[in-house]
Amino acid sequence: MDMNILEILNQLNFIALFLIFIISKLVIETYLKIRNINSINENKETIPERFIDVVTDEEYKKSINYNIERIRFSILTSVFGVGVLLFFTIGGMLNNLTLFVQGITGSNIVGAILLGLLLIVIGEIIEIPLAVYSTFYIEEKYGFNKTTTKTFVTDLFKNLLIQSIFSSILYAIVISIIENLGNNWWIYAFIAVFLLQLIIFYIYPVLILPLFNKFEPLEDEKFKAPIERLLEKISFKAKGLFVMDGSLRSSHGNAFFTGFGSNKRIVFYDTLLETITPDEMESILGHELGHYKLGHIKKTLISSIFFGFAGFYILGQVFQSENFFYGHGLDELTIYSKFLLFYLVIGSYTFFTKPITSFISRQREFSADDFSIQYTKGESMISGLLKLSKDNASNLTPDPLYSAYYYSHPPIAERVASLENKLRNT
Fold first, then answer.
1. Average pLDDT over residues 398-413
2. CA–CA separation, 244 vs 216, rounded Å?
3. What pLDDT does residue 263 have?
4. How far is the C-alpha of 338 from the C-alpha of 330, rounded, in Å?
5. Which residues, including other chains, have CB under 8 Å from residue 337's CB and lie 6 or more apart?
């Protein structure tokens, strides 16, 4: 490490910095959420002009109440999340858990796995009441929830098991590299983690997703025929077209593209097939394939490499500064406790990058929309988007600052206006 960097890290008051960043994040995000609620309320009396023939007064009222309730709940969960993070860091919980693990094992690798599993289990237990309220009260209240108690509990244990397995593998690999590969360990750790993520991404559609949902080949000819024509038109080969039983958990509709290489799959929610036409399905698929053909997936991969490398570089720098860890409430400085604390707190220092990544994502969504209307009917893309906004009770009047910060997809009204403008000029 450059001694100048080490000197700076050792002189900083990380307790004050951490509190400033974490409180700033909470204040900014709460302010934006309140703005969004105000925007919804200011427009609640009249359906936005473009949606007059799309949603009824009753449906518009439902979307208003649904979105306001979800935003208010997200404010409460954010405040709760800050309290939990402070409890684990400055409050000393991570330090106490480290002491507990040290009493069980002297191995850094085993210690990393044990401490990591404790954090995962405690985190899941803390999240259960929030998930129950969101699923069985808010989503249930507005007619979206289809999850049974049995499915909810089964999902909980499956998620816990999968997360525990992959996290344990990751921790074991990284800690082993830190112990054995010298001062440049962070480079090797980054490479190892990136390769592990690629493996997970590759097996995700064929091994992990089927643990939660059933996937049946798309057999309905009225949907299958136009989709296969589109795939041939743009020279795209996929492992298959699948219908997922999204109705097992929710009435929300969606479609997505997953996997890479020989495992590329196109998946439609069964709930989506119930509401849209074959032409609309083709247009929505055209949008998803646009992301692939326009190189968005490759660009996302490249950016994840860049940010992953930067993250491990920063980790490598702060790892030698005891002051950083003391300032975040950790006195028991083991390799694994330092590693896990870093990833508990780093998000509080990087939240300001969210508007940048959101902006890039929204521009790619516009590009994918434009790609779709080159190969499918533009009117079908518009009607499909309008149906999705209706069926999912989307916020039709989001606050511009809120959407600029949070939205990875442009508001539906902006996407529709962009498409209509392109069609007029074609």
1. 92
2. 7
3. 67
4. 8
5. 94, 95, 98, 111, 115, 325, 330
